[in-house]
Here is the input.
Amino acid sequence: MNHFKETQQGGIIGISLFILIALVIIGYVFKDDVEGLSDRWFYLFVLSLLFVFAMFSDFKTVIVDNKILLKYGIGLLKKEIDVSRISSVKVVRNKWYYGWGIRYYGRGWMWNYKGFEAVELQFKDRKSTFRIGSGKAEELKECLNTLLSEG
Here is the structure.
């Protein structure tokens, strides 16, 4: 049974990559035959940027069958967390300098796409925490607390 689903799109990561791709294409179109710049390198560079854009185009958080499923973009970066391993859940606000994306923030790992609201998971089997960035942090916390009380 699907308990929670959120898809975040259009964060600073996606917007920045889109602007970068547009600027590179505009620069290439209006270049004045720069020596040493071959078409092959330009196409390789644009394809690389498009790949990164596809990797981080959105961020999905789904809770199904007592598992938290996290996935960036096309799914090459994904994580599965068994709810039974969680001891507590709380809503937190990330500091601005924690940034966005997948990163270690000092007390554990964080997967965040945009904004500053997150749900912090404390595990039964380790001291480190795990933060999930969410536009629906309170709803995500309530869903997880319901599953924890049932299990």
